[in-house]
């Protein structure tokens, strides 16, 4: 009897353990499934050192484009409601195809209407001429679709070769002529406006605003600092230039809620005004790692294990046009180097300063403790 009771207890314990393990596996699999979509796809069951770290999916590409795909039918309908912005945001190939297709469809449609007017009136005769002694044509020398199409093109482009002309004997032709002029002006203004806005977009100016390939962590004035470099390749300035930085990482609340892509501000000087840049020469942007910093408790070993992304946004006004320009980039945790500094790029020459952009991304290693800023402050009596 005792043996049977013991077996029953052991069986119940195994079932409870199995049930608990099943629940944990479901929670873990759901969390891992979401994390794989946003880039934080490390399996919690993987043994240490048995597999290599999988590449993290970026929230933002290095060129500043957000790695997001919007999947919803409602979004497409909203895009059509704001057709002007949709056309401006389209690629050049799609824009030119839409431009050509729109004009061909408009010309073909109105040319067809002119041909229908000629068909409904006794303009088209068997001898392909609409000139008779007893009839005045609505449009002279329009006797086929091709001639109607040519008449529309000659009128729309103000060519006027002189052979085809509208007369005052058909009210429907006069009304169509007025509507053609109005619609043609609206279409020209719309399409030319789209092309002009696309050519003059300020994001092209962002191509000459560069960021360093890596972030570095090194000491400055006995404090840990996270640093990256920004530069302006043109001589023209970016007016009212400001810089911001975001720390993006998934987190789980105390109640168990999982928040993907949680964003946290990184202080790059907005409390002291250091985020307002005079970007004439390349500048090193510094984030002091203090108690409010997300890197305060992060050591060198923790940095290798962590998965996060730093979003950098540089914004200002183009000096020549007054338009707002924005340049963006991002740094993964693997692109943040511990114990490194940037090579100097600004040198004093005879009568001027010289910027050596060939060393813009260059870094060198420095001596630095591997412990976190929190541990460093505890171990250093001067803090």
Automatic annotation (TrEMBL):
Domain Inward rectifier potassium channel C-terminal: 209-378
Listed transmembrane segments: 96-117, 173-197
Membrane topology qualifier: Multi-pass membrane protein
Potassium channel inwardly rectifying transmembrane domain boundaries: 60-202
Catalytic activity: K(+)(in) = K(+)(out)
Subcellular location: Membrane
Record-level Gene Ontology MF annotations: G-protein activated inward rectifier potassium channel activity; inward rectifier potassium channel activity
Region (Disordered) residue spans: 26-57
One GO BP annotation of this record: regulation of monoatomic ion transmembrane transport
Coiled coil regions in record: none
Site (Role in the control of polyamine-mediated channel gating and in the blocking by intracellular magnesium): 188
Domain of life: Eukaryota
Biased composition (Polar residues): 30-42
One Pfam match: IRK
GO cellular component: monoatomic ion channel complex; plasma membrane
Keywords, in A-Z order: Ion channel, Ion transport, Membrane, Potassium, Potassium transport, Transmembrane, Transmembrane helix, Transport, Voltage-gated channel
InterPro entries: Ig_E-set, IRK_C, K_chnl_inward-rec_Kir, K_chnl_inward-rec_Kir3.1, K_chnl_inward-rec_Kir_cyto, Kir_TM
PANTHER family: INWARD RECTIFIER POTASSIUM CHANNEL, INWARD RECTIFIER POTASSIUM CHANNEL 2-LIKE
Similarity comment: family membership: Belongs to the inward rectifier-type potassium channel (TC 1.A.2.1) family. KCNJ3 subfamily.
Name of the protein: G protein-activated inward rectifier potassium channel 1
Species this chain originates from: Ciona intestinalis (Transparent sea squirt)
